[in-house]
């Protein structure tokens, strides 16, 4: 574990995404929730936790590559839009945000179709700057001389050339949403710039090399200390080369031997590799402050329950520097009085719909008074969403400007 001196943490940075509104996105019919610096999405497998994170990832993917690529990667528009009687035939996403400079705003988009897809509506506002597009037509221009709009791509890509909207484009496209794959970490990888960790962790050797060369040693040491607390005897991890490829080398003390022994990534367990990928995903933000949000899917998978406390400390530590969202169904990860009601969003499946909402006031009070931990309530099946806080679809407010 990091030393007491290294564990001193600054005041939490204000969260980047302050509110998420979703309608008819996969299993989510209606959702309107606030997010803080650290948020746990808690619920059983199949409840829809991953769909919530995927909505954020779709926006990031569509801005980094293209909307067409993001939709095709998910199997087409038919596999994204929730199909149910009374549905809109389109998915809608609204993200309220606060930028590093304190500017607040929102980004909203509605996409639908049958065989293909159409961007029905898109709106963005930051400070006094705003635009509104409907079916490829600019209803509210972002500037006197504005780039043209089309109905098959996000207008924010074009608006990124306007100074007021560039920070919004950068912050949304740089969101890091992760599902670490141990198999990818075992395989040698072609070197890259190592600026952003890939979603599956595949370029981790390059990212680790960048963290080593572009930061002071304590940051890499901090990652190694957390990893060593999860994996007894592990003292370090390094980038190493195999001909023209990169991979990882783990340094571990084995009882009964002198010095440290080196082990290749291929010989390490899933839990060790996943833990390393999660730690690098979290702490890369100390170097690359463009990453204002990190989402981790079920970080406890493949880890021994005794490691949950170390993982929880790392999540809390990282949330001082970037916004962190975690999906989980682990009582061990939540079994700590430091986790309070405002940090929990409960997710359940009900008649084919995902209900996502904060826990009710009685539960929040029990957590606030430390009568129970969130993990104890989860074990007792008492961490359910406050159904009165789940909005009806027609109650959602996705748009601010109409022309």
UniProtKB/TrEMBL annotation:
Signal peptide range equals none
Which stretches make up the ATPase AAA-type core domain?
38-97, 198-335
* Taxonomy, superkingdom: Bacteria
Entry's Gene Ontology BP terms: DNA synthesis involved in DNA repair; double-strand break repair
**What is a single molecular function from GO for this protein?**
ATP binding
Pfam families named in the record: AAA_21
Q: What is this protein called?
A: Chromosome segregation protein SMC
Q: Which organism is it from?
A: Corallococcus llansteffanensis
